[in-house]
Amino acid sequence: MAPPSVTQTILASSEVEEIVKPVKNLPTLEEIKNAIPAHCFEKNAFKSIYFLIQDFIILGALYYILPTVEGYAGWTGLLIWYWFTGMFASSLFCVGHDCGHGSFSNYTWLNDICGHIAHAPILAPFWPWQKSHRQHHQYTSHIDKDKGHPWVTENDHLDRDWIAKNFAKFPLSGFFRWNPIYTVAGLPDGSHFWPWSRLFSNTRERIQCVVSGGLCLICACVAFHLCNYSVYNFIKYYYVPLLFQGFWMVMITYLQHQDEEIEVYEEGTWNFVKGQAQTIDRYYGFGLDSALHHITDGHVAHHFFFTRIPH
Predict the structure, then answer these.
(1) HSE toward the beta carbon, residue 127, CA cutoff 13 A
(2) CA max distance for the chain
(3) Does the pTM of the predicted model rise above 0.85?
(4) What is the share, in percent, of the chain residues with pLDDT greater than 70?
């Protein structure tokens, strides 16, 4: 996406500055809205519930065929099964994602119920995530305020310890960035499970954390029961698929917000339209965009009107 109309200074370090030449102004939010067909803003609760049920049916079918896959194809088949289960768990997350934005339906109570139904089984506390994700949308591409998707300057990177500097080089790091690093440990904006983390600022938010986190815990306990109270089976058949779901989340999010042309703005140069214009649509093909409810190839429009346009 093109840089803003004003001259922008990008600080790669304290010694290096690059001046980007000005280009024409971006359209206003109203101009962008007028260019989008009106039907894209229509919320359909029945259609949304259909997608919610569809994702649960697909995941149920994947678990139904698991013994056959594992029996005939062993660990190779299991890895393929993990890949697709992680993908469709991400699809389920996308439905809950729309609940969090209020684009699932016109009813807050229905959004909250269905959001918890979608997110609790995949150990994503709905209300805490709703808050942290809202902050990302409000300050997309702001160098200091985009907490959920933090931007790291060269000086910030140099100040990090060895593990933080080199973790991204670890080939399997993407499997751990969502859960446990982001949701449990709370890096960078606070744990989504601990009610006294820095993510929450009042009693209402802490109670919501307990409710959403408690529902996740209940789902984990049910899964443990279904695994015959075997830690090995619980990890193999429940937690590892969630690590693959986390990998899909990290991959999708990275591709939505990373490109060599993306601009990041400081306070005083950032505004809402500039920030949202730094998002990217990615076309995966092979039916994946539809399976993922178009969170991949419809992300730019979603960022501009995140409470209005369902995926």
Answers:
(1) 20
(2) 63
(3) yes
(4) 92
